[in-house]
């Protein structure tokens, strides 16, 4: 009887010890993980960290706002130049004006409207893009947009824009951390990729499981939102960036 | 009393081991995140680079505005209008690939088992660094060029042409800037070499890169 009572007491003690140990282990794991994150965080060292981060954000916002103004000024000036050219048609000659119009269209300096496909891609629901330390597969990355644009080009899209930013042959789609830049302009999610072209061919390419393997997998596993729809009247705005050609020169063709 | 001390020692050592284990697990998880980041082919966060890009872009836009204002003055003057339009036509013909062009730039050669995404990314890196014209295996990239396609055999196709190795990418622009953009630490070339084994890369500045017109 005494032995049985002892066994029971020992069992109870063992169970108590075990529970306590489990609490210690879980607490230890938590503290360890917390310490690691703390030591590994790449937040710049500063006396007034929040002030420094706020100043950086304000500086970036200032540049982005200014960029918007410069872009609208460029679009306005190009429109004024076209109007002045039309006005001076007599001295410019109609043939030159027609050639110029065709080239402007080809280069992306005129807006386009027609049938095509609109694709919307957005971050997963549980990630915070604003935190510069967030490195997550649940975010839409610049490489995702590059891949989508590449697929649209293989489907012979005649005009492409991302969030109203025209993508032309010399456009870059890059990222600095979680910030996505198209033509070096800041874009925020959700990303709407508009493509002009044959909707059937474009949808066929997009639905090919081999076309965007990484994005397809992350859409399924990580809640990245992806949808594509055919549309009748898609508007592709004109290119509003700069058309650099400071280093390009025409190759002189020798007279024959 | 002795039992209590023994118990405490055991718990303390368990706690310390668990802390160490937690530290290692978190470290491992973060290094996996680093790998995913590389696989995602995107640059790391750098607020100063972001500010520099914005500043440079705004400077370029201001230059463009100056050029456009000059052009507007010329077009508004009947005597200069024709010359101004001809200059504009010449510029756009060069940009659309209607004439042969040349200029300083870089020559990149990639050999190995490379997927199409690396060609897309390398071209993008050059454009981001200000390349004014780019060609891949002598095919000029214009608004009419199709994207990089991978055919069932694994070969890469561009503009209905199968690209043969080594892949040659040429770009016209400020050659030092273009080269630096490619070979910078954690840049596209470093990431490519880390991920694709046995890839051979040559990046050279060139005084003159020539690109033929698009047929």
Give the CATH architecture of the largest domain in chain B.
2-Layer Sandwich
Give the radius of gyration of chain A. Answer: 29 Å
Number of discrete domains of chain B: 3
Shape of chain A: elongated
**Any idea what the shape of chain B is?**
elongated
At the fourth CATH level, what is the homologous superfamily of the domain at 113-236 in chain A? Answer: Protein of unknown function DUF881
Query: How many H/I helices of chain A?
Result: 7
Question: Averaging pLDDT over every residue of chain B, what do you get?
Answer: 85
User: Within the largest sheet of chain B, what's the order of strands?
Assistant: 3-2-7-1-8
Distance between the termini of chain A: 120 Å
Q: What is the CATH architecture annotation of the domain at 113-236 in chain A?
A: 2-Layer Sandwich
Radius of gyration of chain B: 26 Å
CATH class of the domain at 113-236 in chain A: Alpha Beta
Category from helices, strands and their pairing of chain A: alpha+beta
Strand percentage of chain B lies at 15-25%
Name of the CATH class of the largest domain in chain B? Alpha Beta
Features:
heterodimer, A: 256 residues, alpha+beta, Alpha-Beta Plaits, 5-stranded antiparallel β-sheet, 3-stranded antiparallel β-sheet, 7 helices, 19% strand, elongated, B: 215 residues
């Amino acid at each position: 009887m005494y032995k049985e009572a002892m066994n029971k007491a020992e069992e109870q003690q063992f169970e108590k010890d075990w529970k306590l140990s489990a609490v210690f282990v879980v607490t230890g794991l938590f503290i360890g993980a917390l310490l690691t994150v703390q030591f590994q965080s790449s937040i710049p060292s500063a006396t007034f960290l929040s002030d420094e981060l706020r100043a950086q954000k304000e500086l970036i916002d200032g540049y982005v706002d200014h960029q918007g103004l410069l872009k609208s000024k460029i679009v306005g000036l190009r429109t004024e130049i076209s109007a002045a050219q039309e006005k001076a048609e007599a001295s410019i000659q109609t043939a030159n004006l027609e050639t110029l119009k065709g080239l402007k269209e080809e280069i992306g300096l005129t807006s386009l409207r027609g049938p095509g496909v609109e694709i919307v891609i957005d971050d997963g629901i549980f990630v915070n893009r604003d935190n510069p330390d967030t490195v997550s597969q649940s975010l839409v990355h610049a490489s995702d947009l590059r891949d989508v644009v590449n697929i649209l080009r293989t489907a012979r899209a005649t005009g492409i824009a991302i969030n109203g930013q025209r993508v032309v042959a010399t456009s870059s789609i890059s990222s600095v951390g979680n910030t996505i830049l198209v033509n070096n302009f800041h874009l925020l999610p959700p990303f709407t990729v508009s493509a002009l072209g044959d909707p059937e061919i474009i949808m066929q390419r997009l639905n090919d499981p081999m076309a965007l393997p990484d994005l397809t997998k992350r859409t399924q596993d990580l809640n990245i939102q992806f949808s594509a729809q055919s549309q009748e009247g898609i508007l592709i705005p004109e290119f509003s960036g700069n058309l650099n050609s400071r280093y390009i020169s025409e190759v002189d063709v020798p007279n024959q | 009393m002795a039992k209590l001390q023994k118990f405490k020692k055991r718990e303390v050592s368990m706690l310390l081991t668990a802390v160490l284990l937690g530290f290692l697990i978190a470290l491992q998880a973060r290094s996996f995140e680093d790998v995913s980041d590389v696989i995602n082919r995107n640059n790391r966060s750098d607020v100063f680079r972001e500010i520099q890009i914005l500043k440079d872009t705004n400077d370029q836009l201001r230059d463009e505005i100056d050029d456009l204002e000059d052009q507007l003055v010329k077009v508004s003057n009947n005597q200069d209008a024709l010359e101004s339009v001809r200059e504009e036509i010449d510029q756009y013909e060069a940009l659309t690939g209607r004439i042969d062009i040349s200029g300083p730039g870089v020559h990149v050669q990639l050999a190995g088992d490379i997927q199409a995404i690396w060609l897309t990314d390398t071209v993008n890196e050059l454009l981001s660094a200000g390349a004014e014209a780019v060609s891949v295996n002598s095919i000029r990239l214009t608004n009419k060029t199709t994207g990089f396609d991978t055919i069932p055999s694994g070969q890469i196709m561009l503009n209905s042409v199968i690209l043969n190795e080594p892949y040659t990418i040429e770009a016209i622009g400020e050659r030092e800037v273009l080269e630096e953009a490619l070979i910078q630490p954690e840049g596209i070339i470093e990431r490519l070499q880390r991920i694709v084994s046995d890839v051979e890369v040559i990046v050279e500045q060139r005084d003159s890169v020539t690109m033929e017109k698009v047929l």
